[in-house]
Amino acid sequence: MTLNEIRPLGRTSAMLAGLVLAGSLVVGCGGDGNVDPVPATPTEESIALTFPSPTSAEVPNPDEVTPAAAAQLCDMMRAEVGTWRDQGEILARVSFNATVHSWAVRNGGLNDAVLADQTIVDTAAIQECPDVRQQVLEALNIESLAAGLAGF
Question: What is the pTM for the complete model shown?
Fold first, then answer.
């Protein structure tokens, strides 16, 4: 045998040894050999989900401004009125609109109700915080809160 004939044999032997080693590792990792067969057809199982019915306190009426919602509107306007004075009429009106939109979303989606009747913002503020309403009217230079709403 020549050296050239021995080299292919060495490579083939090394490759064969590698394959045998890899095969034995795969077989060795297979577990104990007890494999349950997979059923041909899945069995029918049902899942039942039940949700408790919400109480009326959990689901706000999207067409009604509650006293709590009116108080929240007053709190939100009270916190911003000083900033609105500093911003000037134009920027303040934009900020006011954002505040009313945020308030409406937080209270069960009152946006539709405000869209249908913008005066509900005035009505809520007159009942809960007429002093804050007056400060907002002066800061925005408007006659009513409804007049300051755009996009509703």
Answer: 0.59
